[in-house]
Design a protein that fits this description.
The protein is α/β, with parallel strands linked by helices. The chain contains seven helices and 13 strands.
């Protein structure tokens, strides 16, 4: 009977391996609130909102398309920043840089942030979006510098924007980066202070999960703090 159950276990594992892994690899989404399975194209049409009003993660590109009046300009990240300053490795089997490469491949982003400038209701704006599919919306060394670059675009003397918006959906500071990544808390606070000195109104939007160092640093420095929906959870340090 032991051999019999082992064979069954092997078959179950083979079946599970064939199943789609991750929300983007299937055309169906299971709603954690009403338990209904929805067809992905229908959810996209409805801005990723289920019939029960549960809000699924909205892709950053779709957010920008919906927010800006028309075209907008992407604020690219800096290429010369090491996203893995500690060369984090476990037993020579797990290299964190490999995970970062995978995040970049899946999201088609260089960092967990997607930043852009354009107009919203005829007001010039810079918008920063965290992408949870990039390491849970990590805030590491490369994200720190990306955030600063977007802030610099916002406060340019000749092209100072009217509003600054950050869509928070972040698991917090990336601990794999050690002290270098933790310095992002200080850097983001400095960036927010410079934006405030420039007299630019700032908006924080919490989408689903907002936690850790991103919540403890820049989040509460905004003039307006918005919870996107009743489905938002895990706003914590």
């Amino acid at each position: 009977w032991i051999s019999h159950w082992k064979k069954i276990g092997i078959k179950v594992k083979q079946i599970l391996k064939k199943q789609p892994v991750g929300q983007q690899e299937t055309d169906w989404k299971n709603c954690p609130q009403c338990k209904k399975i929805s067809y992905l194209p229908d959810l996209i049409t409805n801005s990723y909102i289920c019939e029960c009003s549960f809000h699924f993660d909205l892709p950053p590109k779709m957010r920008l398309d919906n927010l800006f009046d028309s075209t907008y300009e992407i604020i690219e990240s800096q290429e010369n920043v090491n996203p893995d300053p500690l060369n984090f490795e476990v037993n020579e089997k797990y290299k964190y840089i490999d995970k970062i490469k995978k995040y970049r491949e899946v999201t088609n982003q260089h960092t967990a942030l997607l930043c852009a400038s354009g107009t919203i209701s005829d007001l010039s704006a810079v918008v920063v979006c965290f992408n949870p599919k990039f390491g849970g919306g990590r805030f590491g060394t490369s994200e720190n510098e990306h955030f600063l670059k977007a802030a610099n675009v916002a406060i340019q003397k000749q092209k100072k924007v009217d509003i600054w918006i950050v869509i928070y959906q972040s698991s917090g500071i990336d601990v794999h980066g050690g002290v270098t990544a933790l310095s992002g808390m200080t850097k983001s606070v400095i960036a927010m202070n410079e934006i405030k000195k420039a007299g630019i109104p700032t908006f924080a939007v919490a989408a689903r999960a907002t936690a850790g160092g991103t919540l403890a640093s820049s989040y509460y420095l905004h003039d307006f703090i918005i919870i996107e929906s009743k489905c938002v959870e895990n706003i914590l340090f």
